[in-house]
Amino acid sequence: MKIRTFSLGNLNPIELGLVSTLFITGFAGVILLPFYLYLFGAGIFWEYFGVLLCMMLIWSNHSFKLMRYARRDKEIMSLPGYLSSRFGGTTDYIRVFSAMEILILSIVIIAFMLKELGYILVKIYGGNQNIISFIIIMLIAFEVGYFGMRGIAKSAPYKAVVLLLILVILTSYMYFSVGIDQLVKNMMSIDITGSVSDYMNVLYHDGKFLTVQDYISLISMGFLAAGTPFFLSTFFTVKKARYIIRGRRIMMVFVVIEFIAAACFGGITRGYLYPARLTSSLSEYVSLLFDRLKESGSAGNSMAFLLIVLFVIGFLVTIEGTLHLCIVCVYEDILNKGRLVRLNRKKDRINLLVCSIVICIVIFLVNAYIKQLTLNAILVFIATLGCSMAPTVTLSLSWKRMNRYGCMAGLVTGMISVPVFKYATLFVHNEGRASLCDILGVNSVLPSMLITLLVIVLVSLVTPQPEKELIETLDNVRNRISE
């Protein structure tokens, strides 16, 4: 298998719509949405409203431009490849730096996800977490390393159907086994939100009514999808514009149906698990639900098994895509285009498999080193990658004056702004020291994206204009109506 086939495959509209959508909604929609709805209430709806808005924006705006760039430059197989083609230059430091950034952050994200998945399986079935994690990551290494994008694409429709079916089956089972009257009574007895009317009120979140800052924080989290390298890279695989149009329709239908199914599932588990107290631990939540389902007889045993299948697939679809991205970044952008080694193109298949195994060993070692784990840690690293890539890619597709210096400044600023705004206590506030996010009452996503956009603009304006041919290429890509 050649690197181009490994990286891009040959996606049809159904695969294009579901591969990109499953990557975003697998972890966020199947795992986080039900858990946060169970824990916080219906206010979490606004975060997923932001996801939907962002995905519609990308499919309507970014997708066609990224497709045209890839059709013009056959060397583009990843987001670093696009940035290199977009800004040119005699050296490829943008490609190598962006690939290294994606690789390092993605390895940590996968390691955290692997750790969380291992916690869940050990919590329920017992065993050694390191052994379980090693088996899981090596199976994924061989699968992705051997089949590449074609394997991810061919299995996507089946995974999408399975996830939706399991959500519907589990939700229906819990609903009919308890009944609406008892579910309502159970939720009214929970002392976090106080009543069902509060819980179902979309202005309610985390035990209090939403403020303007809460709306901003929740919706802005959804816009991290605009900086997801694997999601954006899927548009490099497209050969015809009508594939994007059809894929967008599939995306809109699937996302809405899955979010509704996941929301119903998460909401009902809140009443189904009563009188157990709410827990902020994902593994504890899955364990409680698993045990509760098993208590209801043979049918419940089947439902408990389906629950584990649901969460495993939810993790795996995101891990697979992220690993595929890491392999392409290492093999094509860092080793080949970075000219670190001379690759034998006749041995691409074995080289890609070896690369996959080596990366997964590194992931396992990082996973084994991690001691303190929270879902918040996963989200921080996802936000760091998203706040670096989203403003940079979005502005690169719309602003002709942006140059390679602004691109590099945006990548660096986005990468450091999230931890700085979230953790650096640089300000005096209420007789103590606080971070900017604490003072503003928002998460780090929106200020990080805004400061990244500002730095890109300022650096681009004070440095030389981009070459004429790069501006002409962007004009052609932006203004081309017919495909």
**Net shape:** globular
Number of strands: 4
Unreliable runs: 192-204
Write down the Rg.
23 Å
Helix content: over 70%
Number of helices: 19
Structure overview:
By secondary structure, this protein is mainly α. 76% of the residues lie in helices and 2% in strands. It contains 19 helices and four strands. Strand 1 and strand 2 form a beta hairpin. The protein is globular.
Q: Key terms for this structure?
A:
483 residues; mainly alpha; two-stranded antiparallel sheet; two-stranded antiparallel ribbon; 19 helices; 76% helix
Task: Describe the structure concisely for a colleague.
With 483 residues, the chain is mainly alpha-helical.
Mind sketching the topology for me?
Elements: H1 3-8, H2 13-40, H3 45-72, H4 79-87, H5 93-125, H6 129-178, H7 180-189, H8 196-199, E1 204-205, E2 208-209, H9 212-222, H10 229-233, H11 241-272, H12 282-294, H13 298-336, H14 348-369, H15 375-396, H16 404-423, E3 427-429, E4 432-434, H17 436-440, H18 445-462, H19 468-479
Antiparallel strand pairs: 1-2, 3-4
